[in-house]
Backbone:
């Protein structure tokens, strides 16, 4: 191609378009994640995670939920969890539902969905926040019921961590 037909940028046009695309990509990524650049507001005190109401029939749910929520609070929010924390995260397990969700070729139920839900209350120096939570896990029978309960607890803990992060956005700068 003759030099006169390359346009105003000449042989640098492909390079310029590549740089422009890279800059555009970087701007989109940074703007999509900008809330993370500021970080999650610290709680300013350690928090204890307690189950205060448990209406579940599957007894393992309480332990899994408490453990998963504590892990999510520490790993996703960076808050310190302690059994003697001055802030308290109360979890109420209001219900659990075990419903058939799949059958085999003979029409016999072979998969169940375990859904649990309840309320959460955060009491801290920054104030009080209250909201609902839920989690879902899947089981193909008694041998993997514990795994399904862990899935439900992890699902709930992830939802609770997002809820806490959103609540923290409304807190004053200092406790």
Residues:
């Amino acid at each position: 191609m003759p030099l006169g037909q390359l346009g105003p940028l000449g042989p640098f046009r492909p390079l310029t378009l590549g740089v422009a695309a890279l800059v555009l990509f970087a701007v989109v990524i940074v703007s999509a994640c900008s809330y993370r650049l500021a970080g999650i507001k610290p709680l300013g005190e350690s928090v204890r995670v307690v189950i205060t109401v448990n209406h579940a029939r599957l007894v393992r749910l309480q332990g899994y939920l408490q453990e998963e929520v504590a892990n999510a609070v520490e790993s996703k929010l960076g808050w310190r969890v302690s059994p003697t924390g001055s802030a308290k995260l109360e979890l109420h397990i209001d219900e659990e539902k075990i419903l058939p969700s799949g059958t085999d070729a003979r029409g016999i139920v072979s998969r169940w969905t375990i859904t649990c839900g309840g309320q959460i209350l955060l009491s801290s120096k920054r104030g009080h926040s209250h909201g609902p939570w839920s989690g879902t896990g899947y089981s193909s029978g008694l041998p993997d019921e514990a795994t399904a309960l862990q899935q439900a607890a992890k699902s709930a803990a992830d939802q609770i961590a997002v809820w806490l992060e959103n609540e923290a956005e409304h807190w004053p700068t200092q406790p």
Q: What stands out?
A: The CA atoms of residues 51 and 91 lie 5 Å apart. The two ends are 68 Å apart (CA to CA).
